[in-house]
Amino acid sequence: MKKRSQTSDGKVAEHARGLGTVTHEMVSERAREIALINRRLEGKPTPEDWAEAKRELTDSRGTGSDPAEEIPVSKRWDPVPGGAAHVVEPVPADDEQTAAERLVEGGVEEAEHERMVEGTRESVRRDRELGDSGT
Question: Is the pTM of this model over 0.85?
Answer without folding.
Answer: no
